[in-house]
Each structure stands twice: as C-alpha cells, then as structure tokens.
Specification:
Blueprint: H1 2-15, E1 21-24, E2 27-30, H2 31-39, H3 42-54, H4 60-72, H5 80-95, E3 99-112, E4 116-122, E5 126-128, E6 130-132, E7 144-151, H6 154-159, H7 161-164, E8 168-171, H8 178-194, E9 199-203, E10 229-232, H9 234-245, E11 251-256, E12 259-273, E13 278-288, H10 298-317, E14 324-331, H11 339-348, E15 355-360, E16 368-374, H12 377-387, E17 397-400, H13 408-412, E18 417-422, H14 427-430, H15 443-462
Length: 469
Amino acid sequence: MKYLFLIFLMNLLHQYTGKSLRRYGSSLKSFEDIKNEIAGYTNIAKAIIDLAVHGKAQNRSYERLAVFADTIGPRLSGSKNLEAAIKYMFSALQKDGLENVHLEPVKVPHWERGEEFAVMLEPRNHSMAILGLGNSIATPPEGITAEVIVVASFDELHKRAQEAKGKIVVYNEPFSSYGETVQYRLQGAVEAAKVGAVASLIRSIASFSIHSPHTGGQSYQPDVPQIPTACISVEDAEMMSRMSLRGTKIVVHLKMCAKTYPDSPSFNTVAEIVGSKYPEQVVLVSGHLDSWDVGQGAMDDGGGAFISWEALSLIKDLGLRPKRTLRLVLWTGEEQGGIGAKQYYQLHKENISNFDIVMESDEGTFQPSGLGFAGSAEARDIVKEIMTLLQPINVTDVYDNADGTDISYWMRDGVPGASLHNDINKYFWFHHSQGDTMTVQDPNQMNLCAAVWTVVSYVIADMEEMLPR
C-alpha cells in the first residue's frame, strides 16, 4: 500500500510540475487552470468592449443619464425628487427587459436646507457663497450676527479656545486629500461648539474653486451643544484668513432656515439577470441614486449608477446569461452614511456565503485606469488575470483596497469587493456642488467605464467557481 501511495504521489507531482497548487472554492485547482478558464473569455470581452465603445450601445449610458439628470435633477434623501427618481428607474429597468425588477423599502433621513445666506458686515459689506451642511440646525429666526475667529486647524482652535466663545468659527483648513480634510466638515461644528462658538463656517472640501461652496454630511454629538454649520467658498475662507492675520475685525451675519423631519420611506432599486446554473449566487454591481440637493448629481453618483445599469443592458443585448445572478442595486440614502445599504445588508446578510463579489462605482466615471480590489491574495490573482481581458482599451491595473460606503458592510465581513478606479483629478472640483451637472460627464469615458464594469462583473459571474475568500 505504501508503494502504491508513493507512485500516486509522484504522478500527482509530475502532473502539476511548474504549477502552483491552490484551493479555489471547494476543489483543488491550479492557477494555470484558472488562467486558461479566464483566457476563454477573450472573445466575449472583446464583444462587450466593441458594443460599449464602438457599437450600437456607444454613448448609451451617457444619454440615459442625461435624460434622467435633466428630468429629475438633484435627489436629496427624503425629497420628492428622490421619490420621482426611484419611480423613473423602476419603470426604465422594466422597459429594458431586466428580470426581477423590484423595490426594497427602507427608511431614510429627511432634512431640508431652506433659505440660507451669509453677509460679511465688517470690514466691508460682502455677500458670501454658502451651503448649509447636512443635518445642520437652523439659526434663530433673526439670524446670528457675531465676530469671526479664523483658524487653520483643530489644534489652533483649541489653543485659542478662550477667543472663540460667542464667535463664529471659520475654518480655513488647506486641502491635502479628501480623506484627511473632510474631518473639518464632519466634526467642525462639534469642535467649535466645545469652545463656546455660536456657529461654524467651513472652507469647502475642494481641490479647486470658482467661488463655489461644496456641501456634505456632518455629525453632532449627543453631549455637545448643536450649532448651525455651513460650508463657504475657498475664496471667502482665504480672504477672511488674510484679513484676520492683518488684525482686521470681521463680523458676519448668518441666517439658516434648515429643518429636520421624521425619517421618510424610500427604496433600494433592484434588477437582475438571473444565473443559469447557480442562480442563488450573486455578483452585485451598484451605484447610489440619491445625491445632495445641488447641481444634478450627475457625477455623484449618476455616472456610477448608470454604468452599473449599463452592465446588465450590455450582457442582455449580447444574449449572455452568466452562471450566477448578476444583480444591480441602486442605493438610496448613501449621502447620509449608507443608510439604504445598511438596511439592505441587514435584510440579506443571512445569505452572505452566496455573495461572490460586491462592486460599487462612486468616485466618478472619468478615464478609467483599473479596479480597486479588496479580498484574499488568491482572489486578487484571479481579478488581475480577468483585468488582462481589458488590454484592448488599456485598462488593466488592480489597485489595493476597494472604496464604497454601500459595499463596506459586506467587505468588512469578508466578501470580496471592487470599485472603479478612474482619473479623479477633477472630481473634487465639482463634488457636492452646483457644478455637479452633465457638463462634467464625458460620453467616451463613460463608454470605457461601462466596458470595464461589464467585463469584470460578467466573467466573475460566469466562472465555474466563486472567488476564494
């Protein structure tokens, strides 16, 4: 018996000479086998690229988005516009012939900014460009008139705490990166209130400005007084900083009429192409349908939502049906902290073992360069190989980590995740501002993004085994 086992072992080693043995899914499979399986999708990948970039579907995602954005406009959580957007997409997905089109109810925050303005009264009269930050309270009906203290950091604020009492704190924090600088928008009101300020005005979290305020979310703390808070343009923040450094007294009158209402009913919008062999297993592609209440929400996140829809349309148009279910989810309430996605996760997490990968595009649909990926080393190797199918459009890179508020719940629990990686050099020029309109979008770039999104999602959905975790 011992000799028979040795002969078997020698034959096995000979069979896999030069190949690395890894466990993919439930069976022992070499990486060479995986590479060969992926190479078999070369023609399908080319067909997807040709249809999206050069064929009848050329510019379709852009044109669909343009009609949607021009018709509906911005789509704030809890608003009539968001309700209209969801109804619009529900009907559009049905007309597109997708399967299992349905709405999944959730509760989302409902905040409205109302009338708002700020005027510098000293040293001269100057109307300031402002946008109240999400969930901000209102000023008293008569507004707030107070002297300004300008700081460049939380550290400076704390060092000058005695000066800040009874004043409006203006943050003139320099933009380094969104991840670092956004802390001033999120926590600026709380930190200002801790030192006795009556309001806070935050320099917009933007890498470029044409006197344009950029809104966004912010959070109060239960044990800290709530004060009104808004963003102001980079130009106004820098001007007041210069004035302050010269020793000039600055007085501002601020009025905000924001209101917070009880949570409103809303929906995540879902459509599918049902899998042919493993319909219970899911590859999820997504973007969020809600936006802030300025501009058109075309970039954030109309583009991501519509290339995700386009992925299913392209696959349907080519007569393809992957082995696993390809599921489109258009999230609601993302801008308020992934509210719709969190409720979706709670509803579906009992089936987490059947989620193959979760994908979200929410950082623009500009010139694509590759895919951000979060998952095991073995899964990353597979995704890198899949990306070689996109050589015809020169989009083959795989980057560390995947970004997406709405898919974070799944990735935290070990489900592989992916996000579109594209040129975001100008993303924060328009982010959460009146400038987020269809003018920002480019049809050719959206075609390429749609091709990337479709090839990756289809191949993963159709491979014989799920990505290893």
